[in-house]
Amino acid sequence: MLLCALASGSLATMCYASDRNALLAFKAQLIDTEGALNDWDAQTDCCIWTGVTCDNTHSRANSLNLWATSTNCVRNSSLIVDPKIDGSNFVASLSGLTALTQLSFANLQIRFRFSIPPAITLTNLVSLSLSGCQFSGPSIPAEVGNIVKLTDLSINGNQFPGGLPDSIGNLKNLNSLYLANNQMKSIGSRGSPC
């Protein structure tokens, strides 16, 4: 009987409900003008959604890649954060993705009308790419320094004239840091010029 169930696929592994709910809450905050995320549907496995990758062992969403030039991503789309959404709500929707190790919005025409929200709670991230997302604000939030597992951080192509927080020094595993084209005037609290 078990063999028949396996053969029919009725025991197929589905993504965690909490991951699916977090991703759907994130999608609800976007205006998807070209239907790039149409396959993000509550009735389907989020592990096969555009831009989502899950680990093979636990079926947890471990990568959200909406990078405009990747092969496993949204292409030529225009995702816009709903103007009614503020930065803290935006991050709250992603905070349920506790197994997420990679988050990339690089070069996507996703227009953020706020700074990178300070309530960054994705502490398992190893790679964070927010390049070219039109984030703006006085400086990169100090809470970025709490994501201590980061090895790659790309936040170039935004607008952070205030520069880097001192907490960036907490990122002991950091191998690459991309900051170009941010209009930065200084680095750290001592105001070292760029």
From TrEMBL:
Transmembrane segments: none annotated. It comes from the Eukaryota. Its main location: other. Residues 18-55 form the Leucine-rich repeat-containing N-terminal plant-type domain. The keyword Repeat applies. It is found in: Cell envelope. Coiled coil: none annotated. Belongs to the polygalacturonase-inhibiting protein family. PANTHER family: OS06G0587000 PROTEIN (PTHR48059:SF30), POLYGALACTURONASE INHIBITOR 1 (PTHR48059). This is Leucine-rich repeat-containing N-terminal plant-type domain-containing protein. The lineage of its organism: Eukaryota, Viridiplantae, Streptophyta, Embryophyta, Bryophyta.
